[in-house]
Amino acid sequence: MMRKAYQEELASIGDRLVEMANLVGSAIGRATTALLDTDLELAESVIAADAKVDDLQRDLENQAIAVLARQQPVATDLRIVVTSLRMSADLERCGDLAEHVAKLARMRYPEQAIPRDLRRTILEMGQLAQRLMAQAAEVVLTQDIDAALQVEKDDDRMDELHRMIFQHLMDDRWQHGVETAVDVTLVGRYYERFADHAVSVARRVVYLVTGERVDELITDRPA
Amino acid sequence: MMRKAYQEELASIGDRLVEMANLVGSAIGRATTALLDTDLELAESVIAADAKVDDLQRDLENQAIAVLARQQPVATDLRIVVTSLRMSADLERCGDLAEHVAKLARMRYPEQAIPRDLRRTILEMGQLAQRLMAQAAEVVLTQDIDAALQVEKDDDRMDELHRMIFQHLMDDRWQHGVETAVDVTLVGRYYERFADHAVSVARRVVYLVTGERVDELITDRPA
């Protein structure tokens, strides 16, 4: 009976993590749309919705502490609870980053923050960020190691896009002025950090399941 | 006996947190010097030293998990351990941010990354970041609530400096080109984030000790 209640509590923590991942994945997608379409209403809704993510994180933290106190898990179960706390911190931060993108859209409204020649790159970053988070959520749900390694691999594209933005900024033909350069620098960093946190969530699952860090796994495997 | 071993383990976790805070406080100070003096050797040493911070964080996490498993703390003691995990994540991130500053110094070497008219502001940001971290370490050690609220207050100056940088960047008279604007944007953000994490460490102590969030405390108090 104790055991069953405990498994239910663990499952409920997992559900909350997946719910957080879904929320922040949706938030980064909508923030990107708000930014590229100069949609003030959408930007405001993303900003307002972040409170829900913060609430979920607080709930999850309290729930994890309650599980630790009541069930006093050891070994793997204990690591699951502790790791969940770390993952919820990653996801909470992703919510903040989506909010930052939306706030930039709001700050520049009704102007376009992103110049025409970078819109495609920013769109791809936004979509990729959303996709990486959906993959991370799936990894939390399924504990599928190959899917987790795929998140890692797909994040390489984010780094590539981030480098492309910098090349563009450093190009002598940059004509959009310093204000836009600052905006693009920050927004590029928001997407890159968002993706890093999605990768981090997937990595933590790998470590939980295999006890090995991702670098070790990748080195061990045939290419 | 059990109780004594437990108190010792908690104290040792606290010592590790303070050690981490000291390391990252020193790192941000040295990274700032490396950046402003274009000192490549110093930059390299900051970059190399971050591995030590990462190791400490891993040790602290393992130690916290061991305490949870062996001692199965409840109530306040449990919150102390869980909060320590969160604080160690804040501090680990601060180490990364100091490393980012050092990497910028290295990337631009032997050029100056920071233009003359912003050096004073960046120096103040670096010194303030180091000071805020020293204060946060002291708060961890002493659990002094007033000192924690002071960290919060002193961080206002960081926000002010960060705004000054943006005003400078947006000024039509900016003559340092886009590359420098991008560097200054990122480095400004690194310091601001570093300070946020120092504030976060202090806030977590306040919450542990009083059970109240800082906002509530500040609202309750006479100005």
TrEMBL record, chains A, B:
Quote the function comment for this protein.
Answer: Plays a role in the regulation of phosphate uptake.
Query: Can you name this protein?
Result: Phosphate-specific transport system accessory protein PhoU
> Quaternary structure?
Homodimer.
* InterPro entries linked to this entry: PhoU, PhoU-like_sf, PhoU_dom
Where do the PhoU domain residues begin and end? Answer: 17-104, 122-205
Stored Pfam families = PhoU
**Keywords, sorted A to Z:** Cytoplasm, Phosphate transport, Transport
Classify the main location: cytoplasm
Q: Which family does it belong to?
A: Belongs to the PhoU family.
Subcellular localization: Cytoplasm
Q: Which organism is it from?
A: Streptomyces lannensis
Record's keyword annotation contains tRNA-binding:
no
Do the record's keywords include Nucleotide-binding?
no
Q: Which SUPFAM superfamilies match?
A: PhoU-like
